[in-house]
Design a protein that fits this description.
alpha+beta; two-stranded antiparallel sheet; two-stranded antiparallel ribbon; 3 helices; 4 strands; 42% helix
Length: 74
């Protein structure tokens, strides 16, 4: 597998597991750097795995989702 293909697979997993229909918080520990910065509009920036997982745990379940292709789903 080329580096480009491997990177695309990682990004696809992030979108599917983090932003998908059901958030799998384990993906944060698996793929995110310990000091990752998450900036989501209308929210304060979140830094670090624990802060990002806390943000997603409190995020409304009825939110609009983003698919791995970038197209929005409701």
């Amino acid at each position: 597998m080329s580096r480009e293909s491997a990177n695309k697979a990682i990004v696809g997993r992030w979108f599917t597991d983090f932003w998908g229909e059901r958030c799998n918080l384990g993906i944060v520990d698996e793929l995110a750097a310990p000091d990752m910065l998450l900036q989501y509009s209308l929210h304060e920036p979140r830094r670090g795995r624990d802060d990002i997982k806390a943000f997603m745990s409190g995020f409304p379940q009825g939110r609009s989702r983003i698919s791995a292709s970038g197209a929005r789903r409701s």
